[in-house]
From TrEMBL:
<dbReference type="InterPro" id="IPR001807">
    <property type="entry name" value="ClC"/>
</dbReference>
<dbReference type="GO" id="GO:0005247">
    <property type="term" value="F:voltage-gated chloride channel activity"/>
</dbReference>
<dbReference type="InterPro" id="IPR002251">
    <property type="entry name" value="Cl_channel_pln"/>
</dbReference>
<comment type="similarity">
    <text>Belongs to the chloride channel (TC 2.A.49) family.</text>
</comment>
<dbReference type="InterPro" id="IPR046342">
    <property type="entry name" value="CBS_dom_sf"/>
</dbReference>
<dbReference type="InterPro" id="IPR014743">
    <property type="entry name" value="Cl-channel_core"/>
</dbReference>
<keyword id="KW-0677">Repeat</keyword>
<keyword id="KW-0406">Ion transport</keyword>
<keyword id="KW-0472">Membrane</keyword>
<dbReference type="Pfam" id="PF00654">
    <property type="entry name" value="Voltage_CLC"/>
</dbReference>
<dbReference type="GO" id="GO:0009705">
    <property type="term" value="C:plant-type vacuole membrane"/>
</dbReference>
<keyword id="KW-0407">Ion channel</keyword>
<keyword id="KW-0129">CBS domain</keyword>
<keyword id="KW-0812">Transmembrane</keyword>
<feature type="region of interest" description="Disordered">
    <location>
        <begin position="1"/>
        <end position="27"/>
    </location>
</feature>
<feature type="transmembrane region" description="Helical">
    <location>
        <begin position="506"/>
        <end position="532"/>
    </location>
</feature>
<dbReference type="Pfam" id="PF00571">
    <property type="entry name" value="CBS"/>
</dbReference>
Length: 776
């Protein structure tokens, strides 16, 4: 549904008239002649499905019922509300930790038995049989994950982080946090990761944590909601937003066992709105996750988790490495940061092209989505199994305490096709789980473990797989593929430096992974803390910060972050934090002039006029005016804003008056409750109004939000955008600077779609040559 109904896409073309340069125009003059109405597109790609997009109501609707409800709440009810918030935050962390443990155990055991079976046939020199088992198992796991996504929950595809960013920005992403989506995300992640695809479970865990938070806040799935009385406090978008923020932080914490990093990730990457109370609850959620994970680590250390060994919950510990660096190390560390920024922006650019291609393939139908996933899985399996045959066997170093060679599920020196006493370095990186591959390439005090040719093959393959795997119809995360690529060139640079540096090659791999993540995702603070908690080595802090800052700076000079690119591709109306420079030379008055006239209602309105407004428009809200002559604007004032859902509720309950009058406070409380008004009910099709009822009246005053946000018509679009985004609005009323006689007290409504730079450029074509790099 539209925000205010003004979804008129102009068809007239710009006539090419020469006009003054907008950069030199004053704020007091109209910037451009209008040749189009302001357009908006309420459709976006959510998951792999085109969905209708609405905005969320983060603003408090301060009508008479709301005010009475808050005044009448006792101290016990206020305490109950606060206690319920902390209880839900605890449950979000608890359930996210349990599900993350389940996913880790399932992936490690399924992948472990698969690799043991393959290793059994390799030890007998039955390489073809091993290939068939390896490929067949991977295809089967991929098929299960893909069919679940394609048939049951298309929104479970991908990481889900861009949609979470959009939701916390104020965009309602349909079916994104449902129970079916969560279940498919869990099972699909297990299948896709265990299949050896070049994707991680980190992004899906963020999405799973958000789903848990949303389901807890609304009392369960839509069809089976729990109607507990205390849950009524959370039947609003504001509290649900806070819970989903806790869920996203818990997901990152569960993925990396990084509580502080999870909180900072939510703050830096996904959240648009933040406050100190939310910070405490988010940290509490991540603390609960860590307690749950730690408890299961202790259980698994006793051998009760099957093949679950060093992988999964235990990350990439390099705390035993002595970190020493000198002034001469600034040069290679700077090179890692520069390479990370360049390669990260190049990866974003190429992935953008691949995702466009995949979108064309996915549009052809479900069978094409399945075939695409199976094709990627087949290519991945053949490469992972076949490329190690190109590597030369390397002799085991007797000075190393670790077992060499090994043929088990994990291990840092895989024998593969080599004789006893030798190992295959490519098989060590390829024939293992992705977590173990990262752990192997991060291994320290092993300067000659991997040959340069093998590292080049490893880097090249994962660059290709990182591009072609993300975008298929399976749950997938971007963190691990980027870590795999970055660690490869980091280790290569460490090998080239050799004795010229004091930094261990494993630490170079860590820095390389961090730099590529900063170059692609453009995170700094949260990423720095996540890597410190991943590696458990605080001495890496100075050079990690240095590398991240360089990589982000270099990457920002080329293109957007990968999640912003995905947001643009999906068409989600995400509002950026920084307005475009040209928005300061455009006023909100000029913006609303490009829209059809706003439709207003009287404080006491005839039923027929309300029905007409609902039938003929898709407005989500209507300004309510009071005065002697509302039609002509004489002596009128703005009373507030009433939502479409409340008007539908009035019609369904037939709260009509026989005469034109104001109602008493007890009359509205007798008919409506705050809980009822919090529900989104805007289906007007099943409301039948008789001809006699059409002539009756409705008093809109008790249901009207009397404190809507307003801006004067001379305010710049840039300033209005900052206000709109910061407060989390759905509607922003534009009022005249001076209300002349006969003039309406409100001249228009601005919504999210109206403030998007792309939509503004459609209404003001002359601005097209001044648009920013981001919109090209």
């Amino acid at each position: 549904m539209a925000e205010d109904g003004n979804l008129h896409i102009g068809n007239s073309n710009y006539n090419g008239e020469e006009e003054a340069d907008p950069e030199n125009n004053t704020m007091n003059q109209p910037l451009l002649k209008r040749h189009r109405t302001l357009s908006s597109t309420p459709l976006a790609l959510v998951g792999t499905k085109v969905s209708h997009i609405e905005s969320l109501d983060y603003e408090i609707n301060e009508n008479d019922l709301f005010k009475h409800d808050w005044r009448s709440r006792s101290k016990a009810q206020v305490f109950q509300y606060i206690f319920a918030k902390w209880t839900l935050a605890c449950l979000v962390g608890l359930l996210t930790g349990l599900i993350a443990t389940l996913i880790n155990l399932a992936v490690e055991n399924i992948a472990g038995y698969k690799l043991l079976a393959v290793g059994y046939y390799i030890a007998q020199d039955r390489y073809l049989t091993g290939l068939l088992i390896f490929t067949g198992a991977n295809l089967g796991l991929t098929l299960v994950a893909t069919i679940l996504v394609v048939v049951f929950a298309p929104t479970a595809a991908g990481p889900g982080i861009p949609e979470i960013k959009a939701y916390l920005n104020g965009v309602d992403t349909p079916n994104m946090f449902g129970a079916t989506t969560m279940i498919v995300k869990i099972v699909g992640s297990i299948g896709a990761v265990a299949a050896g695809l070049d994707l991680g479970k980190e992004g899906p865990l963020v999405h799973i944590g958000s789903c848990i938070a949303s389901l807890l806040g609304q009392g369960g799935p839509d069809n089976h909601r729990i109607k507990w009385r205390w849950l009524r406090y959370f039947n609003n978008d504001r509290d649900r937003r806070d819970l989903i923020t806790c869920g996203s932080a818990s997901g990152v914490c569960a993925a990396f066992r990084s509580p502080v990093g999870g909180v900072l990730f939510a703050l830096e990457e996904v959240a648009t709105w933040w406050r100190s109370a939310l910070l405490w609850r988010t940290f509490f959620s991540t603390a609960v996750v860590v307690v749950v994970l730690r408890a299961f680590i202790e259980i698994c250390n006793s051998g009760k988790c099957g093949l679950f060994g060093k992988g999964g919950l235990i990350m990439f510990d390099v705390s035993h490495v002595e970190v020493r660096y000198h002034a001469v190390d600034i040069i290679p560390v700077t090179l890692i940061g520069v390479f990370g920024g360049i390669l990260g922006s190049l990866y974003n650019h190429l992935l953008h092209k691949v995702l466009r291609l995949y979108n064309l393939i996915n549009q052809k139908g479900k069978i094409h989505k399945v075939l695409l996933s199976l094709s990627v899985s087949l290519f991945t399996s053949v490469c992972l199994y076949g490329l190690p045959f190109l590597a030369e066997c390397k002799p085991c170093n007797p000075l190393i305490d670790e077992a060499c060679p090994t043929n088990g599920r994990s291990g840092n020196f895989k024998q593969f096709n080599c004789p006893n006493g030798y190992y295959n370095d490519l098989a060590t990186l390829f024939l293992t789980t992705n977590d173990d591959a990262v752990r192997n390439v991060f291994s320290s005090n092993t300067p000659n473990e991997f040959g340069m040719v093998s590292l080049w093959i490893y880097f090249g393959l994962y660059c290709i797989l990182g591009l072609i795997t993300f975008g298929i119809a399976t749950p997938s995360g971007l963190f691990l593929p980027i870590i795999l690529m970055g660690s490869a060139y980091g280790r290569m640079l460490g090998t080239v430096m050799g004795s010229y540096t004091k930094i261990d090659q494993g630490l170079y791999a860590v820095l390389g992974a961090a730099s590529l993540m900063a170059g692609s995702m453009r995170m700094t603070v949260s990423l720095c803390v996540i890597f410190l908690e991943l590696t458990n080595n605080l001495l890496l802090l100075p050079i990690t910060m240095f590398v991240l800052l360089i990589a982000k700076t270099v990457g920002d000079s080329f293109n957007l972050s990968i999640y912003e690119i995905i947001l643009h591709l999906k068409g989600l109306p995400f509002l950026e934090a920084n307005p475009e420079p040209w928005m300061r030379n455009l006023t909100v008055g000029e913006l609303v002039d490009a829209k059809p006239p706003v439709i207003t209602l009287r404080g006491v309105e005839k039923v027929a006029n309300i029905v007409d407004a609902l039938r003929n428009t898709t407005h989500n809200a209507f300004p309510v005016l009071d005065g002697e002559d509302v039609d002509n604007g004489a002596g009128t004032e703005l009373h507030g804003l009433i939502l479409r859902a409340h008007l539908v509720k009035v019609l369904k309950k037939r709260w009509f008056l026989n005469e034109k009058r104001r109602t008493e406070e007890w009359e509205v409380r007798e008919k409506f409750t705050p809980v009822e008004l919090a529900e989104r009910e805007d289906n007007f099709d099943d409301v039948a109004i008789t001809s006699s009822e059409m002539q009756m009246y409705v008093d809109l005053h008790p249901l009207t939000n009397t404190t809507p946000y307003t801006v004067v018509q001379s305010m710049s679009v840039a300033k209005a955008l900052v206000l709109f985004r910061s407060v989390g609005l759905r509607h922003l009323l534009v009022v005249p600077k001076i209300q002349a006689s006969g003039m309406s007290p409100v001249i228009g409504i601005l919504t999210r779609q109206d403030l998007r730079a792309y939509n503004i450029l459609q209404a003001f074509p002359r601005l097209d040559k001044h648009k920013s790099r981001k919109l090209r």
